[in-house]
Amino acid sequence: MATWCRVETNGRPAYGLVQGEMVTIMDGSPFERYTPTGTRLSLSDARLLVPVVPTNFYAVGLNYRAHIEWAAARHGIPAKVPAQADVGYRSPNALIAGGEAIVLPKDSPGPVEYEGELVAVIGRRARHLSEAEALGCVLGYTLGNDVSERAWQKTDRTLWRAQNSHTFKPMGPFIVTDLDPRQQRIAVRLNGRVVSEYDTAAMIFDAAHYIARMSRYLTLYPGDVIWFGCDGPTEPPLSAGDTVEVVNDAIGVLRNPVVREA
Amino acid sequence: MATWCRVETNGRPAYGLVQGEMVTIMDGSPFERYTPTGTRLSLSDARLLVPVVPTNFYAVGLNYRAHIEWAAARHGIPAKVPAQADVGYRSPNALIAGGEAIVLPKDSPGPVEYEGELVAVIGRRARHLSEAEALGCVLGYTLGNDVSERAWQKTDRTLWRAQNSHTFKPMGPFIVTDLDPRQQRIAVRLNGRVVSEYDTAAMIFDAAHYIARMSRYLTLYPGDVIWFGCDGPTEPPLSAGDTVEVVNDAIGVLRNPVVREA
Prior knowledge:
Helix content of chain A is 13%, strand content 39%.
């Protein structure tokens, strides 16, 4: 198991391997070759960046039954359980790292809600994979917070404002290799209190099925990410002054403060 | 008016300025600084690449009345004229350059149709632009062919297969600066015959309105692209052996052969 981070060092982004509290800065990246530089940083001194800026940003909106049923009852969002593994999109414009603020848009009627999600980071170019082969193209896993403006979501055909407004896609903190994506517990804490907790075992279509099916119709590229959706309710909504954390034992804590646009 | 291309030279991508039949290869890119290298190529010898690989790939699905009405009548695709300028997404995985083949997926029931579109290429980071300022962040314009699998489109909530299968997004050939996006005629030729022709003046929401509205909620980045949709019918569908061209007087011809997946 390796833990990759992306940090700013000497004003530029660089990949690093995390060992305990220390980061060894690399030349290159986990997506190609890499060699250690002489530089080591303390994790507490490092400015963590989004662990990858994807070329293709895929997201599975509806992948857990309890979340689909809750969203239908609570927000009037269609309750249809997907009949097949269809992936959607988010936009890299909305990505922020841990520590950066989620900004509630000035004119957002709300509620704005978190969704804590497991994220696969593709490690190598892949096409036409079987389900048995599929997870072999994954470098590792990180966490995402799929922030959504539920009022806008009702009339927003493309989800562009509802789910991709500035700062609405926190991702991080690390990319951790050699995890089983079917065996992860994901929690969300709001101001220190656990408000959501579920097991990825409950995915309607699992990561291997999605990756295999996607690779039938498209090429997966190193650095592409796939967000796998969340289970259960995602309340209470976010308010200015909150701190929201997505938590997984192996990957760590993706922590973001919440502010209101000035 | 400047005409930018992106070509492969010495096995690597490089930007070049086109003058007549010659390309002057640049160090750098039109999105930052650039200086001429000593290298000049004949355009006919150059291997043209997609003119930019966008970080954010925006697309306006429904932006012309005659196309919306035709798609509703012909394909049962919802006929709602959008009430506001909501942008959607396509995925860079599907981009191909002029000259590369559009591949009809083996299991596609069809019809697979072209859509010839004007594409804005963002030149500088932009946020909170007024409509008067909006076009100032555009480097230039290119052409896109928004290939769509209409059978899949009917049940494909996210359009991932219907519009983003491998090779479904030809873009090019050049990025041309100083065009008026409201005053362009776009044509599509199928095997040499004009099958679609319209004026961008008929956009429901114009480029400046889209860019200003988008910049209210997100940051536009250099190299982002916005595809603006097409007008009118898009028939007959594509068949293996066809050549499809998107044509504009100023930007040139985006030409792609069509093959069936083996």
